[in-house]
């Protein structure tokens, strides 16, 4: 879930610039202007706050670059329209169709029976990785357990930002243990990385 950001707060860059201006003012007032340290510090402090607020202020009602109010985050994606009656999918009990592919392992359009396996059980798969793998069409341990060396190479090459993780973390070996021996046996073996 995206984190909401306070778009009304001055940016950290504005405060850094303000602090620099205040420090320069303090040094100039105390060395060149012959001010005592206390008045120079007070003037520099006021200057820091004023510059920080001015530089940090937003122009108009536009949020800072990269910031988006929480209300707009969820409104960005419109709801899909209901499909015509002639194109309504088969009942949920039917297995999802495999996605036609010319390369890589067989993929599914959706998890079987509408429920994906918890792929985070595999060492090296966290929430972000699981989401990415699901988006690629892999939802079940038996899909991963059935990958050939060529399939592993294809998935490794196509994991955006995680290239090489399938091989490095030995996903196929882990998935095969889960499929053949069960999740409890896998968890026991995972304690010693025995897979």
Please report which band the strand proportion falls in: under 5%, 5-15%, 15-25%, 25-35%, 35-45% or over 45%.
under 5%
Apparent shape = elongated
- The succession of helices and strands, N to C, reads HHHEEHHHHHH
Number of helices: 9
How many distinct beta strands?
2
The class by helix and strand makeup works out as mainly alpha
Structure description:
By secondary structure, the protein is mostly helical. Helix content is 48%, strand content 2%. It has 9 helices and 2 strands; from the N terminus they run H-H-H-E-E-H-H-H-H-H-H. The chain has helices spanning 12-32, 37-56, 70-75, 127-135, 141-145, 149-158, 165-168, 171-181, 183-190; strands at 98-99, 107-108. A two-stranded antiparallel ribbon has the order 1-2. Strand 1 and strand 2 (107-108) form a beta hairpin. Helix 8 packs across helix 9 (183-190). The protein is elongated. The two termini are 33 Å apart. The model is unreliable at 60-77 and 85-93 (pLDDT under 50).
Set down the secondary structure blueprint.
Elements: H1 12-32, H2 37-56, H3 70-75, E1 98-99, E2 107-108, H4 127-135, H5 141-145, H6 149-158, H7 165-168, H8 171-181, H9 183-190
Antiparallel strand pairs: 1-2
Helix pairs in contact: 1-2, 8-9
Short overview:
The protein has 195 residues and is mainly alpha-helical.
Descriptive tags:
single chain; 195 residues; mainly alpha; two-stranded antiparallel sheet; 9 helices; elongated
């Amino acid at each position: 879930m995206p984190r909401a950001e306070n778009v009304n707060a001055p940016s950290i860059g504005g405060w850094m610039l303000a602090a620099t201006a205040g420090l320069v003012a303090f040094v100039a007032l105390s060395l060149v202007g012959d001010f005592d340290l206390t008045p120079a510090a007070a003037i520099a402090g006021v200057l820091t706050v004023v510059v920080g607020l001015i530089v940090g202020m937003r122009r108009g009602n536009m949020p800072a670059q990269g910031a988006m109010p929480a209300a707009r985050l969820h409104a960005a994606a419109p709801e899909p329209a209901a499909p015509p009656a002639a194109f309504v999918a088969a009942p949920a009990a039917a297995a999802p169709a495999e996605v036609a592919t010319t390369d890589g392992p067989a993929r599914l359009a959706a998890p079987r029976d509408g429920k994906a396996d918890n792929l985070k059980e595999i060492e090296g798969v966290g929430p972000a990785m699981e989401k990415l793998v699901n988006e690629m069409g892999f939802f079940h341990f038996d899909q991963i357990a059935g990958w050939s060396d060529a399939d592993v190479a294809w998935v490794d090459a196509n994991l955006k930002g995680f290239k090489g993780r399938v091989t490095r973390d030995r996903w196929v070996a882990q998935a095969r243990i889960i499929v053949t021996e069960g999740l409890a046996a896998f968890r026991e073996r995972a304690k010693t990385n025995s897979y």
